[in-house]
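Aim 2, interim progress. The first record below pairs a target sequence with its structure tokens.
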Amino acid sequence: MGCRPSPIAAVIRVYKFERATIYTDVKFISLSLYGRYIDDAWTLADNRETAISLFNNIARQDPRELLKWEVDFPEDGEFTPFLGTEIRITDDKLESKFYRKGTRKDITLHFRSHHPLETKVQTVRNFYRTAEISSSNPELLEQSLAITDRLLLANGYEHPRQFGEQRTRGRLTKGNNNVMLKLPYVSETVSGEIRKFITARALPIDLVFTPGTRLRDMLCSSRPHDNLECLAKNCNICERLQKGSCNTMSPVYQITCLLCGEIYVGESCRSVHDRLSEHSRNANNPNAPSYIDTPLAIHYTSRHKN
């Protein structure tokens, strides 16, 4: 699961194997329950042999023999990890609690990170909410909360439970007529002063603070496969670009008329070169039958007839 398409590929591939086994062998394999989340599956079977046979049958559908299941069975009184929980069966009852793998580093959003206070509070609340949902009884809940406490203490939150209970500004209300204003986060002092200004004047603004520019934004490219070198011969588009490359795909662009200063903003799923070349042809031949209804042709025939 090291890249974004991996979960989708796992879902599709394993489902293909399941169709050839579970949905055809159900008459011969006694199952009370079977489920799967991406590449983690669970089942309730009559005995261990049935469960192992089920997963082996699924794995045998892989022609490349890359699918290998690790089957865990809950022992009496012992917990078995599954996803973000640990589960056990005692006296025919299923119990669960919050779980973090031992190989995972105790790293989350740090208290001293350059993020708005609301973001940190919501992060802490979500951890405690997950601990509560994952716990099946009060005793296990305390164990889950202790795990969460250790994680947050390791990330600079001195009193994490009290930190998560503090009040913050309310969530944005859907359906109102307010304008959303996004500003880069600077500090809590600056954010507070801006909120006071908006509240004191009853401005119809929903204020949202973003983390701003991060090291990842400065050092990493989100479009590493764009070829920045123009491959067109005698390209007349590159010299007109203020920034970017002719080969950039799916651009949002702005064209400014040098005669009147009017601005046209557009977007395209094609490259910058292909789209702007088309605009150039439209502007140079605005009366051509195939161009007459295009935006730049309409602009030049209505504003610059001569």
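The second target in this work package is listed in the same format:
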Amino acid sequence: MKFVNNNEDKEEKKRREAGDGGDGEDVPERGNWTGKLDFLLSCLGYAVGLGNVWRFPYLCFKNGGGAFLVPYFFMLLCIGIPCFLLELSIGQYSARGPVTVYGQMSPMFKGLGIANMVANAFVGLYYNMIIAWTIYYLFASFTSHLPWQDCTNNFNDENCFSIIEYTKCLEQRNTTSDLIYIDRQCSNDPEFFNSIMARKDYWYKHEKEIELENKTKTKVDCYYINTTFCNENATQADIVKPFDLPVGKRDSSSSQYLKKEVLKEAKSIEPSDFGSPDWKLALCLLAAWLVIF
């Protein structure tokens, strides 16, 4: 695409209308931007995508928080923006698509345009799948009780942890003593306590990574002595009474909703564990493709 040049020579216009690119080669008539605003919005749509609002905050948090912005803006100024302007300049000057423009620049670069198209095709495939998930969540949220806010669903297991239910349990401790939140319930029933203590290994045994004297790291067994600290030197005898589900054993209700209800993740990638296509996700994926095209 390119801007309409009001000062373009009339002869050049005639050649373009006749399909003559000036070098003896027939060039098909191409559309033009109706204004600078159309061009600006198209550039924004090209540069800003789902990854900017979904993956970037995660990468920023994972790689040092605010400190991550220093190398990010450095690479943005040195590589990101120059490459972006280079792509725009080549496209404006040549008025060709990515498949053919590299071959016109140099025959040895012809495969670069095809590789670009294949890479974009793969990106479109998995991005549409993510958009299908958002459509699924959109329809699932049309209810007064969100299905991922608690652990009362059939697909939730014993390690499910709901922050809403846990907060309510903390508030109830002001009036009721010895309440704990574990096994998807808030209770101080003695029989319930006995059932938890009978399965100490299941509820409180975990693994942690420690650093040895030779600076190597290894995983060892440990027991939680409270909700946050797992002691590698502790044993079952050190747990004298039950307490809340430890942080290392928690699986959030929203995570279980995604894995067990939406994606229906299998235990492995073996063919025997393959399930059948989910019609809800299939319809959402179809809707995503219809919206795109």
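Residues 86 and 92 are 10 Å apart (CA to CA). This observation will shape the mutagenesis plan for the next reporting period.
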